[in-house]
Write a structure and sequence with these properties.
The structure holds two protein chains of two kinds. By secondary structure, chain A is an alpha/beta fold. In chain A, 26% of the residues lie in helices and 34% in strands. Chain A is built from five helices and twelve strands. Chain B is of the alpha/beta class. The chains are: A alpha/beta, B alpha/beta. Chain A: The active site is at residues 78, 169, 171.
Amino acid sequence: MKIGVLALQGAVREHLHLLEKLGVEAVAVKKQEQLQDLDGLIFPGGESTTMGKLIRKYDLLEPIRDFYREGKPLLGTCAGLILLAGQIEDADEPHLAVMDMTVKRNAFGRQVDSFEAKLAIKEVADDFHAVFIRAPLITHVGKEVEVLAEVNGEVVAARQGNVLCASFHPELTDDARFHQFFVNMVREAVALR
Amino acid sequence: MSQNHQVGTDLVKRGMAEMQKGGVIMDVVNAEQAKIAEAAGAVAVMALERVPSDIRKAGGVARMADLRIVEEVMAAVSIPVMAKARIGHFVEARALEAMGVDYIDESEVLTPADEVYHIDKAQFTVPFVCGARNLGEALRRVGEGASMLRTKGEPGTGNIVEAVRHMRMMQSQIRKVQGMSRDELMTEAKDLGAPYELLLQIHETGKLPVVNFAAGGVATPADAALMMHLGSDGVFVGSGIFKSENPEKFARAIVEATTHYNDYDLIVRVSKELGGSPMTGLEISKLRPEDRMQERGW
């Protein structure tokens, strides 16, 4: 099993580190052709505007959608979540649009409003140390989307089939439980293929 | 927000810089330039009144930017907005924090307000980035609470030589500290003028505790890629974009070269498509000693 981390920009190293800690082969992905031998793909935290532009510039949009259609799991954290969303408030167009949900960028305010908090995440942990940095919120979810975590009644983690997302940064702490959950999704998908 | 929520922690402040890695932060002086930078793929913009090369030309005292410019830039883009405060000028920094700026650069590009002390940055909720020429300077800034570092280079010159010198110096000092025996560290801390606890951390991890970008002299896509090869986590471009002949193309090309710094075919392609010359460069030895911005800060 091999999982890629999209490495156009952002907290790539941290995701690779957690995957390696879980004993999973992990690679930084910059080019289309690297997708072929992967079983899952992670979209890291960073700047979604920048990553969205580079995804288009290097013609990664359709290859990643094909990857998803083959039943291979995706995980997006913070900016990565924005890349996965079907709709983005105050933006012209979504990016990958593989999750039936609407997101609001910088939903908690500016950097001075960034925070860390203990969070209960369904099927993962009831005491997850979650770091929110200029974080987005999921303001609307479709029928197929399962809500996994909330802050003040607002959705901050969700799953739809083989796609998982969090508006916080599980990659910024040493707690690998959220990544373990994703690795299990990838393992199940590999078994089904 | 519930009591469970903590703002302004080291993790949140340093984490913000982690999210900028592999990206380019561009100096802008108005909303129009900020939009060009965002469209080109910048991960953040630095709002100021003049880019460093114009600060050099104008002379006199360079202060924090007119706050109306900062406000205009914040309203124009959704990416983070940084702004510069003078070294030691904690009231300029408090004003920028109160406005909601995402990151403050306590910068030698502006005229220092204090010739002895830097800002006590740990007291702020907003994170700070600071310049450094060597490991001792870098760790003094982290000790004061900086959440991100950058080389000082020599701002506004379009000459990469000083940024290279500073990055190589820091990397070589990190390797040296990592290889030392533990009983040598206190004397090394004394010699470098670095906090012992931070030096010990570097000895154990082999890396700086915060993200370190390149800054001060980046003028071309190849300059940006060179700095990434030397171990930079990302790149600040000051005058290099809006003082070039084709800012849009330079901005896009520098973003691409930073992402794909070891793809030389790509660097050839983007360098051929620049559509104009880079900013005019300055020879460092021709600068008068009082014009060397990197000597500011202590």
